What does this fold into?
Amino acid sequence: MYGRVRSLFLRPESSEDVFPMTPFIIEKTETPTDPVKRTELLANPAFGRVFTDHMALISYSADKGWHDAKITPRRPLSIDPASTVLHYGQEIFEGMKAYREKDGHVATFRPEANASRFAASARRMGMAELPEDLFVQAVDELVRVDQDWVPSGEGQSLYLRPFMISNEVFLGVKPATEYLFIVIACPVGAYFSSGCVSVWVSEHYTRAAIGGTGEAKCGGNYAGSLIAQAEAKDKGCDQVLFLDARERRFVEEMGGMNVMFVRKDGKIVTPPLGGTILRGITRNSLIQLAADQGIEVVEEPVDIDELFSGAASGKYTEAFACGTAAVLSPIGKFMRPTGEAVFGDGKTPGPVSQQLKKALTDVQGGRTNDVHGWIHRIS
Ligand SMILES: *Cc1c(COP(=O)(O)O)cnc(C)c1O
It folds into this structure.
């Protein structure tokens, strides 16, 4: 057992949060991907379809705590049909990336932030909390074993997907007593092709309500957003924007990205975190990087009607979505049944979006001084 078994619903006490390095059993694959084949795969990886050779696994049970930490060949899981996750959806995940730095080393970006958000998601979903050090260590161990899979091309990285499922064989409705934490990895290129994305404003479906699970990174949030995303596609848009559930009036976020706006007065505006918006690490990093450049970021509600009239009047000059997978995606226009809000010519990324994207990707790629200590070197 690693560390002390905590009661499921208590917040961790920090003094007990210090765990020694956990021994991982490393079982390497006997059939690694041929290096020539890997080079081919890395040249142009499609998002989320190409995976590395290994995965990290850690088990939890109420009596043993976290145990059996290992790296194994990537392979299918064997799950009982009565496993709780298949019925009640206790599932949470993270999304982060390992980058090939300019100097050739491999590093992740703010992994402690992912670890602590993962623990917060676990608390909200009534799941066992993985100690944050163990989360970071599991990611490190996997990246080290699969480090040849970290691509070095522009905009490329190794996308990491830590996730946890409840895995008790029981059909009763209650928090499970067994969990499985897993990390898988896939090399990725740019998420969206360059240029701007178009966004459909969902006036019917909402993503999260106060007191709900909007702040937890759980699979269920995504399941609930897919119909709205499909509607957006149907309307010819790339992405969907959700409004607040109470009034359908204030901008919240996209299905999997936070959103920001640039105003004519030079300030950036982004909706405040209030329990219904995911606490994006990209969002947080961009707020800091903007401040570093003397750009003020105000976190205040953005009224959707005011956004549409402000785009027309020139009060709002740029809009962009941000998240780990897509980094920073300039938004060319928003669409709703009554009209469009277009930024610039609707096709060309604005100067502030480009400047911030460069600032962020330069830190992540080790091309600029890491003044905030965000880079976590692995190899
Ligand atoms: C993951 C996610 C984000 C972005 O978070 P990052 O930490 O920046 O990757 C934003 N919104 C939702 C709903 C998400 O699931």
